[in-house]
Amino acid sequence: MKIRHLTHSCLLVEVAGRRLLIDPGGFSLDAVRALDSEVLAGIDAVAITHQHPDHVHRGLLAEVLEASGEAIVVAEPETAAALAEPAGEDAPTGAAPAVPRERILELHAGAAHEFEAVDGEAPLRIAAVGGRHAIIHPDIPRVGNTGLVISAGEGPRLGVTGDSHEPIEEFHGIDALAFAVVAPWSKMAETIDFLRAVRPRLALPVHDGVASAGGRGIYLNQATNLAPEGTEVRDWVDPDRTVEL
């Protein structure tokens, strides 16, 4: 499994002969558009944890789906419903159209989808876990948020939290976990307590587009220094920002 960080919470995952793009939001416009055309054309699915624009940019999603005519969108139910409808009246001129319903796969918490095996590999499996976004403020309605567990056969499992620090059972002891290292809805103690609760073998910091370069270092250092025994917090290394499991 190869995991590439494309800014903020956007990841490009290559596993079992498949290519999966996760949470292509507004912070990731340049990084996704800079991908080689062959890479974009080979994307099998775009997985979206929730509807917030830093996790899904409708215009960018339309570009990806145009580049890869076979790609489907795997999304939590509220996000799937929103993407299937045209952009609202307050959207800018030329806003991306609705995603064709036949290209959307709604995946609610507790459900899973298994892709057909290719090239003699084990089938790619995407499981949805959790269900609600973290509380930003009591006056702000919570939206749906499904974490993801990505696997193929007996190979390593990758967890993606989306915008939540809920210690979901499926994340406990997982091989790798992409976790929100900093977020407007969390404080440092909650991030550290979350890592201590689930104890992934490898913790990969994402959701960092909201922090300055210097501020990001503060959050990353604390998560690294206070992580539980047996958990390695590993930062992405330029230029390719790729981790292989």
List the helices and strands and how they pair.
Layout: E1 2-5, E2 11-15, E3 18-22, H1 29-33, H2 37-41, E4 45-48, H3 58-67, E5 72-75, H4 77-83, E6 104-106, E7 112-114, E8 124-132, E9 144-152, E10 158-160, E11 176-180, H5 188-198, E12 202-206, H6 213-225, E13 232-233, E14 242-244
Parallel strand pairs: 3-4, 4-5, 5-6, 10-11, 11-12, 12-13
Antiparallel strand pairs: 1-2, 1-14, 2-3, 7-8, 8-9, 9-10
**Mass-distribution shape:** globular
How can the largest sheet be summarized?
7 strands, mixed
Q: Segments where pLDDT lies below 50 for 5+ residues? A: none
Overall structural domain count: 1
Tell me what portion of residues adopts beta-strand conformation: 25-35%
Number of helices: 6
Strand order of the largest sheet: 6-5-4-3-2-1-14
The CATH class turns out to be: Alpha Beta
Structure description:
The protein is an alpha/beta fold and 245 residues long. The protein has one domain (2-89, 96-240): Metallo-beta-lactamase, Chain A. Helices cover 21% and strands 26% of the residues. The protein has six helices and 14 strands. Strands 6-5-4-3-2-1-14 form a seven-stranded mixed sheet. A seven-stranded mixed sheet has the order 7-8-9-10-11-12-13. Helix 5 (188-198) links the parallel strand 11 and strand 12 (202-206). The longest helix is centred in the last third of the chain and has 13 residues, at 213-225. The radius of gyration is 17 Å and the shape is globular. The N and C termini lie close together (5 Å). The mean pLDDT is 95.
